Amino acid sequence: MAVRTPRSAPAADTDPGIAPVSALPGVGPALVAALARLGLERVQDLWFHLPLRYEDKTRVTAIADLCVGERAQVDGVVEAVERGFRYRPQLKVAIGDASQQTLLLRFFHFNRAQAEQLLPGTRLLCFGEVRHGAQGLEMVHPQYQRLSGDDAVAVDELLSPIYPTTEGLGQKRLTGVIGNALALLPAAEQLELIPSELCAEHGLTSLRDALLYVHRPPPDAHLGQLMLGRHPAQQRLAFEELLTQHLSLKRMRASVRRRHAPALSGTGELQRRLLAGLSFELTAAQQRVGAEVARDLAQPKPMLRLVQGDVGSGKTVVAALAALAAVESGYQVALMAPTELLAEQHLHNFRHWLQPLGIEVEWLAGKVTGKTRKLALERVAAGAPVVIGTHALMQEGVAFAQLGLVIVDEQHRFGVQQRLALRDKGRDGELVPHQLVLTATPIPRTLAMSAYADLDVSSIDELPPGRTPVQTIAISNARRLDVIERIHAACGEGRQVYWVCTLIEESEQLRAQAAEVAHAELSAALSGFRIGLIHGRMKPKEKQAVMDAFKAGELSVLVATTVIEVGVDVPRASLMVIENSERLGLAQLHQLRGRVGRGALASNCVLLYQPPLGQLARERLQVMRETSDGFRIAEKDLELRGPGEVLGTRQTGQLAFRIADLARDAHLLPAVQQVGERMLTKYPRQTERLIERWIGGAARYVNA
Ligand code: ADP
Ligand code: MG
């Protein structure tokens, strides 16, 4: 056995990683607060806060050589400036360079001083994403700096990491703090928590090297590989994160299953009455899954079951049947959804189904305040049978009389910790509630086993009859005007349209800007029709107002960021246009497309793409055109992994993982399971510390 030096003893107080970020030089209360918004509270949280992408400012590209979709640095001289106020203030700056080509810079947010600086003749070094605009190539809101005279451009020597950040915390500042945190990284063997015998068996390289590489890739690093998260250093980190997730889920499952739950098995009378009142018959898949759930509920052991089913497969009615089993046995049911919008849809459905049976449904969401909230809480405490809401349900002050079943919709929006928090509400002496999780994210079985290692899985693998599949076509952005023409015609026929902007950016602000640009464009092109806008920077109230107007048919077109990805149900919307569709993964495209084709109307989906298409992007769009089967799409997604050009591998809202991506990293799972098993049985202390390292931080992230 190796002789241990005193420094390598893993005593907590010698671990620099667990010190608060305020221990770092120059980190005062304001910065602590900003970092906390990112879930970064301890020094080690900064170690694991990885770049979202990298910018290559190590070279300058001639305008003539720019490619649409690329981010590039251009050195040019301002040729013309135009301030427009057609729909909203706009500053257009044309620059030219030695390649004799022109590039348009567009600004929607600018101040006077800025506009005055950008005069013809000014030399600019700008960096941004190259887009195809009405007047040729353009950059919207590029970063730029003025250069004087004939100075040679000082290009960067290293790739610049771009970190996910938050308002009020600039990249420079964040990069500086992370640099200071990295200076405290302990020696490799001290940092390592996966036992060396297992590292050796599975060829795992040093965690310390991996972290340093990912934060500071050398100039010769393979940028494409890094951008896709497939570099061995990133894979090493993803492995550790997947392993930790696995360990924590397994441990949690074991601890829950040791406890007792109320056996919920009534006469089935309420369920019969609900079914008799429906205008449809359950599909065979719904019946099968319903029976699996019923069997679990009848056990005196807490159910931990995931029901996965494609968008529109009818998970809600299965959840309602489960709820009735609890109500009939005299227990309460809590249903929570990730957004107020979704929760409200459930409220509507449940009231529609349960009120005729004489069962009241309580509504508890963030916007329920004051006296209404107080009364609702009192009724919940007194035993109101069914309570629906967002995660506000879990906030303090919500006490249940006898919670028997917790239903969580769209689980990937919640962290495991959030599920736990609600379950804790149910501690009634020895009894814990059953748990039913619904998700529309179809996951192949192997993945499900790992991602939901704490849950049993049921699949509703069949859609109700009579749905018209969404007709999907892919169209090059070069034919954007034709598409807009088509929207015009559709609006004229009274159809409603989603226009989804999918700019993948580090900040919600830039995404919102992209949506604003599209909104202005469509408003101009579709005069006579009302065009709405919804994005993540709007207040919940504003979002709700826009959604309500769209639902009520007052808006013809809804321009949206991917905030609409999950669960929105507007049966009359029958056309969807997805911009930059080549950049999205199949799963996300499928989720988005699921927003149309929900009613009896024949629906269409237009996948706009920026040519030229890479091989993988081409295949992905092809799959979308060929099938609308979520499970097939999920399998295909996995199959197509490899050097794809999904830049959006970190899907918004998917907080459960910081680094790993189940579709991309599925090949790591068999080893994760092997190492996981050995660690659970042989290395409990390291298991503990791994969970503390990865999930301790994530829990705070989720609650932020
Ligand atoms: P999801 O699984 O996406 O949550 P929902 O539960 O919202 O799907 O169901 C989608 C729509 O299909 C709803 O309008 C629902 O009433 C309807 N539905 C559910 N089951 C059936 C069925 N067996 N036959 C016909 N329509 C159904
Ligand atoms: Mg649903």
What does this structure look like?
By secondary structure, the chain is α/β, with parallel strands linked by helices. The protein has 5 domains: 1-53 and 163-186, no CATH class; 59-147, OB fold (Dihydrolipoamide Acetyltransferase, E2P) (Beta Barrel), CATH 2.40.50; 192-258 and 668-704, no CATH class; 269-460, P-loop containing nucleotide triphosphate hydrolases (Rossmann fold), CATH 3.40.50.300; 470-627, P-loop containing nucleotide triphosphate hydrolases (Rossmann fold), CATH 3.40.50. The protein is 39% helix and 17% strand. The strands form 4 sheets. Strands 6-7-4-3-2-5-8 form a 7-stranded mixed β-sheet, with no helix packed on it. Strand 14, helix 15 (416-425) and strand 15 form a beta-alpha-beta unit. The two termini are 43 Å apart. It binds adenosine-5'-diphosphate (ADP) and magnesium ion (MG). Magnesium ion binds next to helix 12.
Q: Would you kindly provide a brief summary of this structure?
A:
With 704 residues, the protein is an alpha/beta fold.
Bound small molecules, by name, code or SMILES, are: adenosine-5'-diphosphate, magnesium ion
Kindly report the name of the CATH homologous superfamily of the largest domain.
P-loop containing nucleotide triphosphate hydrolases
pLDDT averaged over residues: 85
Strand order of the largest sheet: 6-7-4-3-2-5-8
- Amount of helix: 25-40%
Give the CA-CA distance, first to last residue: 43 Å
Low-pLDDT segments, ≥5 res: 1-12, 642-655, 697-704
| Strand segment tally | 22
Structural class given helices, strands, pairing? alpha/beta
CATH architecture assignment name of the largest domain: 3-Layer(aba) Sandwich
> How many whole angstroms does the radius of gyration measure?
27 Å
